[in-house]
Amino acid sequence: MKAKHYFPLAAFCLMTAACNTAGKHTELTSGIQLANLDTTAHPGTDFYQYACGGWMKNHPLTDEYSMYGSFTQLAENNNEQIRELIQDLAGGTHQQGSVAQKVGDLYKIVMDSVKLNADGVTPIREELNRIAAVKEKKELYPLMADLYMRGVGSYLALYVAADEKNSSMNAVQIAQSGLSMGERDYYLADDEATKKIREAFKAHVQKMFRLAGFDEAVAQNAVQTVMGVETRLAQAFRSRVELRDPQANYHKMSMEDIRKKYASFDWDAYLGGLGLTDVKEIIVGQPASLLASVKEIDTLPLEQQKLYLQWKLIDGAAGCLNDAMVEQNFDFYSRTLSGAKEMRPRWKRAVSFVSSALGEAVGQMYVEKYFPAAAKERMVTLVKNLQESLGDRIRNLSWMGDATKEKALEKLAAFRVKIGYPDTWKSYDDLDIKNDSYWANAERASIWGMKEMMAKAGKPVDREEWLMTPQTVNAYYNPTTNEICFPAAILQPPFFDMNADDAFNYGAIGVVIGHEMTHGFDDQGRQYDKEGNLKDWWTAEDAERFNERAQVLVDFFDNIEVAPGVHANGKMTLGENIADYGGLQVAYQAFKKATQTQPLPVADGLTPEQRFFLAYAGVWANNIRPEMVLYLTKVDVHSLGEWRVNGTLPQINAWYDAFQINEADSMYLAPDKRAAIW
Predict the structure, then answer these.
(1) Rounded CA gap, 85 and 224, in Å?
(2) From 267-271, 493-497, 622-626, the region with the lowest mean pLDDT
(3) pTM of the model
(4) Interatomic CA distance for residues 90 and 107, integer angstroms
(5) Which residues, listed in sequence order, are joined to residue 561 by a DSSP beta bridge?
(6) Distances in Å between the alpha carbon of 467 and those of 60, 104, 179, 474, 483?
(7) Which domains does the chain carry?
(8) Alpha-carbon distance values, 234 to 181, 201, 202, 299, 447 (Å)
(9) What is the b/e burial string over 571-595, where b = at least 16 CB atoms within 10 angstroms of the residue's CB?
C-alpha cells in the first residue's frame, strides 16, 4: 500500500545533531573511519570519491537495493532493533485491545504468507464489486470519499493542515492528485527513457487487472482509461518547480465560491463522506488541477469512471495482497522505476508497515530501549550553539539591511526545537487490529489516521504534534510552526558519535542542525514569519539581493550532468542546496568557536578542519543504480548524494583552506563565482 503523507511544506533532510564535548578532547576519537576513504583520489578533483570511495567499494549494491548509503545502513540497523521489539510482542499473548496485542498481531498478519496467498485478491473483491455496482454518477462522490478514507486516492487530495496565512489554525486544503506514477513528466515527456516507462506502466496496469481476476478485454479497456485519465490530469499539474512557490499555491476560497467555480462537483456528498460537515472555506493549492479533476468526473463515461476507481483500489492495495500482486507491483514501481532487482524480505516490509500504522506506539518502545537520555541533553546544547552561530552570521551579512536582519533574528529566536520524541504519546485505543486480512487492517489504520486529521479542521494547530516518529532516521523543518525536529533514531553514527570529537560531530550532525535551521531562511522558508505565517517580512531590496545570490546555486546545479545528457534541476533542488550550504557555514563557524580555547589536535593524519568536512561527506556515502539516478533527478527536491558533496563544498571558503584546493584543481571555483548567502 502506498502511504499518504500530507505535510504543509515540511522540508526533510537525511541527518541530525551532535554534542559539544569541549574539555574531553583527549578522550575522544577522530570519528573518521580511514577505510572509508579513497586516498588515491585527489580532494580537489573529486572530493566525494576521496571521502567516500572506500566505503562505496566495501558496500557494493545487492539486488535488494536501488540505492544504498551510510544513511540506509543506519536505517537498516534501526529496523533490526525494531524487529526485535516487535517479534518479542508477536511471540507472546496479550490482552485484546492492548498496544502489545495490536503491534504483535499486526506483524504476524503481514508475515503470514500462507494466508495472504490463500486469500489472493479476496480482501478487495467486495470493494471492486461495490465500484462495479455504481449505476449513477451521483454515487461516485460518497464512494470516492469512502475509498479516500480507506487509503485509496483518486482525483484530488484533501487534507487538513495549518493555514499558511493563519498558522495557528487548521484548514481544509486540496492539492493536485490522481497520478499513479506521481510525476507529471512520466505522462508528458517525449524522451525515449520516459516513453519506455509509459509502455511499462501500461503493461503493468494490464497485468494487475488480470491478476485481480478481470478478463483480457476489461484489462485492455482499463489500460486505455487509466492512461487517458491520468494524462489529462497530468496536463493540468504544476511542475515540482512551480509547486515550490508557496504564494502561487495558496488560494483560499469560501464554500460559496467553491460551489460556483466547481459547480458540477457534489461537495456536500464528498465532504460529508470525509466527516466534514461544516466547512466554510477551502484552501485550493492548484486551481487548474482541481478544475481538470472536476471536469474529468463530470465528462468521463460512467463505465470508465468505474475502471479508473477500480485501478486506484488495485494499485493502492497491491502491496497488501498475495505474492503475485506484490511481485508485479514491485516489478514496475521498484524494478522499472528505480532499478531494484530483488524485493525486500517480508520481515522488513512487515516492520515498515507496523512502524507506520502504529508509529508512536512502536516509537515509545524504541525510545525506552535505545535512546539514551544524555543524547537529548547534549542535543539541546549543540542546537543552542548552532543557533548562536546562525545569529552571528545574520548580524554580519553585508548584503542584508538592518530592518530585514531584525526580523530574521526574531524568527531565529522563535525557533521551536523538538529532540528525540514527543512529550505526549498518541493513543491507539480506537484502532482495531483484527485477524481478517492485511488489507483490512491497512484500511482501518488509514481510516483511523484520516479521522484524526479531519477532526482538526477549523481547530487550533497543536504545535506539540510531531510530523515524524522517533524511530525515523531523518530530520525536518516545518515552516508553519517554525520548528526543527530531530527524531531519536538519527542520533547515531554516522551522524552522531558519542566517542568522537567535535570536529566529527559538528561536521556530521552539526551540519544537519544547521541545515534544518537554514530551511527557515531558504527560498521557501524565508517567506514565512516567526509565527509560521506566509507573510513578506523582507524589504524589496533585500529580497532582490537574496534571489540574485540564490541564482548562483541554481545556475551551478543546473550545469551538473548527473547522467549522459541529463542535468540536475537547480530550481527544484534550490531549497535543499541552500540548506546544505547554510548548514555547512553555520556548523563550521560553531565548530571553530567551540574549539577556540582548546584547539583539537591532528588525528589519524588529518587536521580538525579536514575531519569536519570528511564527516559531512561521509554521511552521503552512497551507491546508486542508473535508474534511480534518473528517477530521483525527476522527483526529489534533494540533490543526489554525490552532488550534496561535490556541488556544495566548492561554495565553502573554509573547505579550500582545509585541503589546500587551488586554481589547478578541477573543483576550484573562483571566489566571485561561489555562493554567498547565509
Answers:
(1) 46
(2) 493-497
(3) 0.94
(4) 7
(5) 567
(6) 33, 24, 24, 11, 11
(7) 14-21+30-82+358-424+464-673 (3.40.390.10), 134-320 (1.10.1380.10)
(8) 10, 15, 16, 17, 28
(9) bbbbbbbbbbbbbbbbbbbbbbebb
